[in-house]
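Might you be able to review the protein record set out just below?
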Amino acid sequence: MKAVTFTEYGGPEVLHLADAAEPHAAAGQVRIAVRAAGVNPIDWKARSGVMREMMPVDFPASVGREAAGVVDEVGDGVQGVAAGDEVFGFAVGGAAAELAVLGEFARKPAGLSWEAAAGLPVAAETSLRVFGVLGGVGEGQTIVIDGAAGGVGVVAVQLARARGARVIGTASERNHEFLRSLGAEPTTYGEGLVQRVRALAPGGVDLGFDTAGQGGVKALIELTGDPAHVATIADFAAASLGVKVTGGSDGRRPGALDVAAELAASGGLRVEVARAFPFSQAAEAHRLSQEGHVRGKLVLIPG
């Protein structure tokens, strides 16, 4: 089979489409014929080597952590899923390949495109894990999401709104109307954020969620009045400020995929797909992801 791989750390140019051994589903897993695979910042961070101490890779290394496709092999102990079923979930050993093994998965809602389904696992699980780290997000609370138009931010906004929270989201002005369509109140990020948010929410802010890692954590602490009420997935140095730092290595949120699937099926959750690239153009997808100005998700598709 063909898979997107890299044999050394470096820029996007180290990615290439190569022959790879077919994976097989172990106990509790399924194998899928991949229809789409998501692209996330953690992918290019692993590829570039900036996280080699935390996440060393063995070369040749595969790419991608989330995928959607059609089940073609079912491992021992898996119940309720059969060959031919459409699913999405977390890949074990790489997602950007013709065949991928999923260790955690859920049924793909019929109305959800392959590209949108592939872009849902990381964003949904991350958002729900952060909500848990913050002690819950719900009715009567106001949460500021810094980087609300990004891949995780878009889903976090909708999940918070579905729980009854008021959401103030930061984004560039070109994305403000988009955020309003998701139910968020937009503002720009950067200098002066505290004053802008206080003008929108003079009664105060309960929680802060940094998805961007662009220096907004201190403003979120000032707004909430307590670093314990702020979580980040992108600014690892913020732990020294008392902020809750969480990554996928902390353990995934149980049931997150089922929650996301149910909400998506009811029309309460949509995934904004910024652009889909064929596997052969994975380098370009990584380049755009690394620039950090993408609205929604980038995905890779076979071909």
Observations:
- The chain is about 25% helix and 25% strand.
